[in-house]
Write a structure and sequence with these properties.
56% helix, Rossmann fold, five-stranded parallel beta sheet
């Protein structure tokens, strides 16, 4: 079987990993393997909840994801997928730990306030709202993200050979374009 291409996109919570990875995978014709969804699914299963985006799952997913048996289970599933097709994987340590030989590793960062605003806008859009978050809502969400970053620090690891991409001043389209260009250069 020919070697499959693995593109690893890592970063802290709300850095745009999953949405960017999904768009990059779509642009390249690769499969998107979202580790966060796998961790959420296992957390929901353990809590007996069917909605993986529920507040209860969100509150517990960081803790459950740190359990060695859960990490091993998720990593094994990601490796299984990557053996079958070219993939874009996203998470916190995909390039450093799970796929250290990935052909391309990206580490996304953005200012906490920007990440908070993006997350709040995404939530509002999912509800069909055209409202914009208030400064106090953005500050409160930024504080939550900073606290989550602190909890997840042991598992948010930038691979030494990862490309650091600060998306603070980039649109999602711009960051996708940059990663797709890098991926195409690697695949040649």
């Amino acid at each position: 079987m020919p070697s499959r291409i693995v593109i690893a996109i890592d970063g802290p919570a709300a850095s745009g990993k999953s949405s960017t990875a999904a768009l990059v995978a779509q642009a390249l014709g690769y499969r998107h393997a979202d580790s966060g969804v796998l961790y959420r699914a296992e957390t929901a299963r353990r809590l007996g909840i069917s909605d993986i985006r529920s507040p209860q799952v969100t509150a517990e997913v960081s803790r459950i994801a740190q359990l060695p048996e859960v990490r091993a289970q998720v990593d094994a599933e990601l490796h299984r997928i990557a053996q079958l097709e070219d993939v874009v994987v996203d998470g916190r340590d995909m390039g450093a730990v799970v796929f250290p030989h990935a052909q391309l590793k990206i580490f996304l960062v953005a200012d906490p306030e920007v990440r908070a605003r993006r997350r709040l806008l995404q939530r509002l859009q999912k509800r069909g709202s055209t409202a914009t978050p208030t400064p106090s809502e953005i500050l409160a969400e930024a504080e939550l993200l900073i606290a989550r970053d602190a909890r997840d620090v042991a598992h948010t690891i930038q691979a030494p050979d990862a490309v650091l991409l600060d998306t603070t001043n980039l649109t999602q389209e711009e960051q996708v374009q940059q990663i797709v260009a890098m991926a195409r250069a690697v695949a040649q």
